[in-house]
Amino acid sequence: MTTYQGMARAHTNIALIKYWGKADSELFIPMNSSLSLTLDALYTDTKVCFSEELKQDSFCLNGEEQAEGAVAKISRFLDFFRNLAQLDLPCRVESVNHVPTGAGLASSASAFAALAAACRQALTLDLTDQELSTYARRGSGSATRSIFPGFVKWEKGDRHENSRAVPLDPADWGVAMVILALNTQHKKIPSRQGMAHTIETSAFYPAWPRLAEKHLKEIEAAIQRRDLKAIGQIAEANAMAMHATMLASNPPFTYFEPASLEAMDQVRSLRDQGYTAYFTMDAGPNIKVLCPASESQEIAQAMEEAFPEAKVITSQVGPGIQTLDHWPY
Ligand code: 2P0
């Protein structure tokens, strides 16, 4: 019986320079390069088993068997690896997402990075981490960056092979992030759909790739000199610029909710009190606060007091993908 098994863990990442818009939606080539911080607190463990004993692909997430649509998406992704290994075996995929339930933080970034790493291990594929990031990208753009630890750049490239992640800095100099999960009931627009609509209709979109590339140069210089204040200022400006492109689309839409705006105010007020705290926000209402690790507990406490309904998660910087030698469940 031929069976190939692999297990891997990948952590999620939060973009400080955002990816918003695809130049090629087939290949997932982005309109601009982006940059993120990998987080320790949120991750996905994934086990794959390619076997001739199986009849078809299947996918179990957090102990729940997934429906046809979700399996089809996974199957298309597995095909990249089956093609590389030149084999045609069905695969069983099991994943456990370590994301607090109901926090509105479910992420495809750690999911596809873990799946790609598990496939590489199972099929003993001769792929570097950088090459692996190009495959992770084909599952979800943000997964490209979850292959590496710390501050990671996703170079946009112009074809499959060169749209890849580059590790910039392990961020092991006291960087942290406090996540304010606002857990609202509002149904969000999937980011894939949101970015396509923004490109098609937003009068502000043409300015976005240029601004993002400028922010990227500035933030890379700030990372190099370990200037967390400058990193935070650039990240905050970049997030707001991305959200502005959506406000200027037609019909307009936004991920801002009243609580998101209140949380931004809270971060500004923490700054007034002397904290080095800067926010960013993605395709949902949650606010993430970049800060020094030494201030993260006090910032988290202030957030908990201001938003008693929310879940507050303090995260250190996360590692890159890891293979697992046993399945911890
Ligand atoms: C980012 N986001 O850079 C940006 C900021 C959301 C806002 O990457 O279509 O789930 O699978 O490539 O990666 C979310 O988009 O989209 C995202 P697809 P993805 O983190």
UniProtKB/TrEMBL annotation:
One of its GO terms (molecular function) is diphosphomevalonate decarboxylase activity. PANTHER family: DIPHOSPHOMEVALONATE DECARBOXYLASE (PTHR10977:SF3). Keywords: ATP-binding, Lipid biosynthesis, Lipid metabolism, Lyase, Nucleotide-binding. Belongs to the diphosphomevalonate decarboxylase family. This is diphosphomevalonate decarboxylase. GO terms for cellular component: cytosol. Residues 178-315 form the Mvd1 C-terminal domain. Its EC number is 4.1.1.33. The lineage of its organism: Bacteria, Bacillati, Bacillota, Bacilli, Lactobacillales. Pfam families: MDD_C, MVD-like_N. One of its GO terms (biological process) is isopentenyl diphosphate biosynthetic process, mevalonate pathway. Residues 10-165 form the Diphosphomevalonate decarboxylase-like N-terminal domain. It comes from Aerococcus sanguinicola.
